[in-house]
Amino acid sequence: MMQNLKSEIVQSFIEGKIDRRSFLSASFKLFAITSISSALGCFYTLSQHKLVLSQEKENSLYHILNFLFPKEKHSPGIDEINTIPYFHLILIDQHVSDFDKKIILNGITWLEEECLLEYQKTFFNLSLKEKEKIINKVSKVVWGENWIAKILNFTFESLLGDPAYGINVNEIGWKWLNHKPGYPRAKGAHK
Amino acid sequence: MNSLGEEYDVCIVGSGAGAGPVAYELSKAGKSVLILEKGKWYSEKDFSKDEIKTCRRDIYTPKLNEEFHLSERYSEESQKWESKSSKKFGPSFWNGNCVGGSTNFMAAYFYRLKPKDFRLKSEFGEVKGANVVDWPISYEELEPYYAKVESLVGVSGRVKKHPNLEPRSTSDFPFPPLAESIVSELIDKAAFDLGFNSLPVSRGIISKSLNKRSPCYYSNYCGSYGCSSGAKGSSRAALLNSAVETGNCRILTESQVYKLNSDKKKVTSISYYDKFGNSKKARAKQYVVACQAIETSRLLLNSSNSFHPNGIGNSSGQLGKNLLFSAGGSGGGELNVKDFSNEIAKKIMQPGLFINRGFQDWYYINDKSFGAKAKGGTIDFLFEHANPIRRASSAKWEGSRLLWGKELKRKLEDDFINKRHIRFEIFNDWLPTDNCYVSLGEKKDKWGSKVAKVRLGYHKHDLKVASYLEKQTLKIMEKLKLHNVYSSISPNPPTNLIAGGCRFGDNPKTSYLDRDCKAHFIDNLYVTDGSFMPTGGSVPYTWTIYANSFRVAEVIKGGV
Ligand SMILES: Cc1cc2nc3c(=O)[nH]c(=O)nc-3n(C[C@H](O)[C@H](O)[C@H](O)COP(=O)(O)OP(=O)(O)OC[C@H]3O[C@@H](n4cnc5c(N)ncnc54)[C@H](O)[C@@H]3O)c2cc1C
Ligand code: SF4
Fold it and tell me: How many domains does chain B have?
């Protein structure tokens, strides 16, 4: 049910009814018309480019995911489960839609823009408190909530998917959460 | 005629539950059978418990940007039917496109319909705004075929007498019930305390070997996954392998059928694209379509020509109409191991075993608080699928708030280590209405065929019945002392339980198929998937689809 509800909201976003700019303004309604063209513009620009994780975006995603899914003494972080290399795989996976890939990439750009606007710093250079504040803010608008949910879901794939994909190294995610895999196991990453 | 020669006795489109029995019966009878299946041919050794591949990517279904569905829902806000594409957020109705179809991936909760389901209108009267009719055949006519499915496809279970038990020609199931979890006992006890009948649920899964198929090894990853032992009664494992072994059945994979060519009274050939994209034709004496409801209606609508301008054999205008899903809802709750002794907690967390408990006390509702006597439904209890990625994805929400950081990690630990999720599913009739049907969209798929446009209207009565059943379910949930109980009754159709669109009946003006599931106006065209059902009963459909396909196979056998 939760998923259905979320899809409905995201649908509005895609159709241009709501967009990320809405959260920049105290009054969304005032900005609605300009924001529509800006959202479509973003999609258009991206479709001209290859959907890849540039070095700059990779750095940014690394710091964002380290914040969202931090390493702890007793629980794995994204380095141990190879999350960043896995995102590169996702972006070239023909079975992941371009639509999802665009959501991942746009979100990184937009979050960094918000950081600059609010603190004149990149996400990496924010204090822990500032990071919490900006993620919290972004999570309350449609694009941000959808984007965080999406990158967390792919992070969970790298945590709990089969090590045959080069993720969940030494079954560290399964061991942490006491999860028993099913057999037969994956023979390798799907093609 | 050579069995693998140019003209076949029978050509079947699709290879799932509707197709398997026809292929099996006819090839065993020495008839030549050609199956055209749009997907690939996988076997037990190809399947694995890879959640990413099986549940999170479109490996066993078409890519949605190439082959998609349009669906229409009524918007209260705009007061209009609004259309969405499955390319973006509209529902997708693909469920498994490979040899054996969706039956490879089903969870195989198998229920028969009951005698009153065959005469819903006579038993319960009209419902305003719904197109309820009686079936042209009775339960008694289908019963021998239900029994045949039990032994041939393999159904495991245990008969327990209860007031709504349907009549059976055999005393018990040919395969003993699958091993059960301690949670089944907890449910039995809760039911006993409440005075309800907790029933063992039968499964289309074998608990002991059958021919070359090994019994279930309790892999813990069943629904949505292909079975590596052949225990699950997929059309492929249970029927098509034997059909092919006769030497009379040929399966052409990656063959996309796009049109049935016809004259006024007969299908003359079938057009398909082979795996290299070349357009080919196949010929047979009899043609059977079993692409799964929606795709079947779409193919028949796309097969229009000068004799049949509105779709082949569609002079009644009934083709695509009265599409059905399964109404109801679902919900769940958590058993927390901290509430139990170590010994019991260990048993609760044991993976692999099944709950297999259901309730049919309210299959018919006779309760003044509800209103007049009415058709009710079935409640099923089951474990949440093991899928850890999906589980973590749900755990990241606290209500409608997203979690991250340490808070997320503590939630994941608590969820995975301390909790076992119990789900329930409610099945009741999705009443046929004028607002639920398949037509052709303007957009085309990668093959150049118009895609299906599915109008997803529902009848309010469905929600009323489902809410009544939900109330009963919540009493059981409460008795089980589950935590974080949630429940949702919704008009959203489950995209994997589909029927109708080519309803059968004796009147050619109000039905597309006759009682033998032959198109009224075409002499050699049969439909054997769930499309024939005029009403769906209050259970999942697959056992009924299998049984009916065995019934129709006998008719076709007589005709070739
Ligand atoms: C995850 C899941 C769980 C389920 N659990 C249950 C359950 O517990 N109990 C239950 O009763 N049912 C269950 N079902 C439903 C069950 O799988 C279906 O009811 C059943 O498979 C329907 O049979 P069918 O023949 O209509 O379609 P399918 O079995 O889907 O077969 C249709 C076949 O036609 C092929 N096809 C379609 N179009 C074309 C074309 N144009 N040319 C060539 N080939 C084509 C498809 O590729 C497919 O292989 C479940 C389904 C899923 C997906
Ligand atoms: S082995 Fe049993 S549990 Fe596993 S997929 Fe097959 S039938 Fe389902």
Answer: 1
CATH number of the domain to which B379 belongs: 3.50.50.60
| Beta-carbon contacts below 8 Å between A and B | 126
Handedness of CA A116, A118, A124, A127 (dihedral sign): positive
In the DSSP assignment, the letter for residue B98 is: B
Please answer yes or no on whether A97 and B57 come within 8 Å at the CB atom: no
In angstroms, the Cα distances linking B477 to A24, B53, B108, B195, B441 are 44, 34, 24, 14, 43
Contact yes or no for B404 and A68 at CB 8 A: yes
Instruction: Map out the domains of chain A as residue ranges.
Output: 2-48, 55-177
Taking only residues 40 to 99 of chain A, the set having a beta carbon closer than 8 angstroms to any beta carbon of chain B reads 67-70, 72, 75, 93-99
The one-letter amino acid code at A74 reads H
pLDDT, one tens digit per residue, over A172-187 is 999 999 999 999 999 8
**Omega before B534 cis (within 30°)?**
no
**Do residues B538 and B427 touch, judged by C-beta distance below 8 A?**
yes
A190 touching B (Cβ < 8 Å) = yes
Pocket test for ligand 1, best of B95, B324, B330 (most atoms within 8 A of CB): B95
Q: Cβ(B226) to ligand 1 under 6 A?
A: no
Q: Does A10 touch chain B (CB under 8 A)?
A: yes
Name the pTM for this structure: 0.93
Q: Which DSSP string do the residues of B494-542 spell out, in sequence order? A: PTT--EEES-B-S-TTT-SB-TTSBBTT-TTEEE-SGGG-SS--SS-SH
Q: Can you tell me the distance from the alpha carbon of B74 to that of B82, in angstroms, rounded to the nearest whole number?
A: 6
Residues constituting chain B: 560
Pairing of strands B279-289, B7-13: parallel
Q: How far is the CA of B115 from the centre of ligand 1 (A)?
A: 25
Which pair of tokens denotes residue A120?
């004149």
In order of A185, B95, B217, B221, B386, the CA distances from B228 in angstroms are 11, 19, 9, 10, 17
Q: Which domain does B263 fall in, by range?
A: 7-557
**Segments in chain B below pLDDT 50:** 1-5
ipTM over 0.85: yes
Query: pLDDT tens digits, residue range B353-373?
Result: 999 999 999 999 999 999 999
Q: Which residue matches tokens 């990690």?
A: B409
